[in-house]
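Z., the sequence and structure:
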Amino acid sequence: MTVCRKIFLLMAMLLHIAYVKAAVLPVMPYPQQCSIGQEPVSFPTQLKWQSAGPDQQMQARLAAHWQQFATSGKAKGQPALVTLILLDKDNRLAKEYAGSSLDSIGQEGYVLVVNTKDRFIAANTETGLFYGLQTLKQLTRGGWHTDVSIVDWPAYSRRVIFDDISRGPISTVPYIKKQIARMAELKINYLSFYIEHVVQPLSHPDFAPANGKLTIAQIKELSAYAANYHMQLIGSFQSFGHFEKILSLPQYHAMGESSSLISPRDPKARKFLADVIGELCGAFSAPWFNVNCDETFGLGKGRSKAYVDSVGVAKFYADHLKFLYDVIKQHGKQMMMWGDIALQHEDVLDMLPKDVIYLTWEYGDQPNFDAWTKPFAKRGLQFMVCAGILNSYRMFPDMAMAKANINGFFRQGKQDGATGAFTTIWDDGGAYLFDADWYGVYMTADRSWNLDTAQNASFDQRYETTAYQTSNGQYVKALFKLMELRALPLTYNLNDQLWQQEILPANGKKLILNNTSATAALALVEQAESDIAAAAPRSHAADIAALQFAISQYKLMITTRLLLAGMVTEYTTATALMPANPQQASVKILACADTLQALTKRYQAAAACFKKAWLQENQPYWLNVVLEPYEKKSAALAQLEGQLRQAAAQHKLPDITTTHLNIMVTDRSYFRNWMLCGPLPVKQYGDVPDFLYTPDKTDKKTPSPGDFIRYAGKIYNWQKFPSMNGGIIDLDEKYHYKGGAAITYAYCQIKTDSAATVTAYLDAGVRTLVYCNGVACGEIPGGGEQRLSLPLKAGVNHILLKMGNAQQQPWYFTFRLEDDIAITNHKHKYQLNAKSTRYEVD
């Protein structure tokens, strides 16, 4: 009997250990310490409150937050009594459960205990009690039913979400309030916005878009609302670069150092910045203000070039930041700034005041983040690590990259002394819904609070429970099935060029259609479509709708490409049939027309769906730009449909090259992305400037987006150029140049793991010179595709084309490499035969 009893007790103990080990609290972020029991305990939605320390006003505020939750769903269980304890009044009960860990909870931590004997939340502050309340809310909503003791505190005291509202979507005030409430449940304590021009200060009310802005009064309203959720709003205004939107207005044009930089030495520019920043400092509630000043493209090449040459770029930049620092300090705030330019010119770090907070950013999956942390850490400077949830120029945010980036950067940041975890959500490209970003927001909330990797594996389960009150895993399954598109050539890196591409050429034009991997992509999309259809959310259904829309948009694009490729074949077959069997040929053509009509309706329905979703989040600003691709595609399809119906009725098919079906279907990869600079005027046709990238012989740097050159008394910008027709770079259409003899430069990079000489094929309408790594390697006279050899070194190779125009000759080019080379690209950066997949950050 004794032996049996011992075996029974041992088995019970092992079962209990296994239960505790397997049990995962449905909580986000996950607590630092928790003890999970097996004793059944109720978690009712209706609670009664008693205080041990909090005054009546504090208890009422906390009870009101709980009541919002309790009345949002069906009541369950009998009401229970919960005690709210401020530890400076009484810490005996909390100490009994927390032990020495009680010393770790600080200003935001808490102790939460729920069992048959005790039910309380204890903290040093109201904020700690509020965060304990959020955990209790999640346990209740998640159906937790056994005793639990939690001791919790944040890894980072500053946990920031930074939302881009200047490159397209600008949220409505009601939607921002929803963001605040939802983020606060995740214990995010700061929210900020990327602001270039979408605020309306009283001193300068004329630069904000009429249909997309935040007024000073609205910002104050949001700051007050956030305070109720123990959150502060960090002020922000772009104060050096990325200033093109304001400078494009006639009344502000003279303030420019260049077309995109405000002039640091212009008195009117300085007053403008002081006025605007001053008002914003008074409206945003946090003790810091972010002047941005990142990506100052063309720094030192603008109207102050002579001065910059005399003092140096670092001093020129630092002096402007000192001016901004003084403005911020006058308003009782501490200055934040992005760290990228200071990292490029490290002298800047030694020139600025020591209490500047640097926001050091990197959004990729890196082996380590030394380059972004060590320069600040070794000087003892304050810095926050800035991870990213990247929408930029993508069809959907790359959550696989975001997960790796957030995990790695936050861990190293903490090790190296970062004072905050700052997560950016960028919207370059402008066609995005914030409801697509929440997986990343929950991820950053989890990791900025708790850096322990033990619960990484449970994240997806906890995400679905806390976000959607489901446990079926279907949202995450669909999301990461969609992420598999990153690896396919057609959908590489989730790039939005697939959507921006023209689907049909204009009359007299040609389009290249490469459907390599389209069938594989469609299979992934259809699986994701099936997965998300089974998601069945009980809350936040808009998140599911945003993912469903992205999946359906991919399906529409890929299906369109496959149908159009088939239509080219059908048209060719019908053309051959027409002389002998016009009736059969017309049947084929009418079937194509019916397909086009159905496609048009699908694009129109997609546009209506997206417009509805946009306006549920955002102000009308930029919506017309976002809807333009839908309208253009619908119009092109309808136009081709009409063309085909007319041809079928007349039993006469025009040559395909004269129609909107002039599509070259191929499996060859043409280089679609370049950087262009021009047109540069020359004395006569055939002349070629002797400089490589810039006339400035002291500047040996290869071009980057935003760089510009001075040539013949004018400024010419290097601009990113994506071909919209599959790889035909139509310079006539881009420039509409009527100024006589000229030349354009085209630049790209080719990276290869090992040195090799590869065959390139260049088709240009005019004489073109080709350079590889600064050395001339070929010249073609124009008029048809011609071969040339590129001697590539291991690593990055710099390819430059110098292409003059000619009278009565089309100005265009196409460029490709030999067929057996596998090519991927991110913008104008191409990779050959990559041994491992490397996804690029924008």
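The domain at 673-832 is CATH 2.60.120 (Jelly Rolls). The two ends are 70 Å apart (CA to CA).

Let me know what you think.
H.
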